[in-house]
Task: structure prediction
Amino acid sequence: MGRFIYEGGQKVEIEDRALTHLQLVITAKLRRGEPFSFSWKEDSSVGGGRTTVWIHSGSALVFKYFGSRQPAINRAWVDALAFTANAPSGLYITPEPAEGGAVERKPEVANA
Result:
């Protein structure tokens, strides 16, 4: 179980695999200079509820992992998380989709 720490104060425990995928999305958005909000549900052991932080290029972020090995990356999950990060609601953790199963594309049909 990893930990995301924002500005040295707000923190949440997130499974290492999910945290790795979040890190990819967060760092990509920050490299492009795109600020956004990130929300998560708090565990009932800390009172429950929801926390939202505003992430921008000056944010102090820490991604602390319990394990030492980086998990395999599911591109479909990265895409799903990036989709939420680009929405007005901001980034939040979505369930991991099957590899390659996030977007269904229909073949284009030419007009005859």
Observations:
- Residues 2-85 form one domain.
- The radius of gyration is 16 Å.
- The chain has one domain: 2-85.
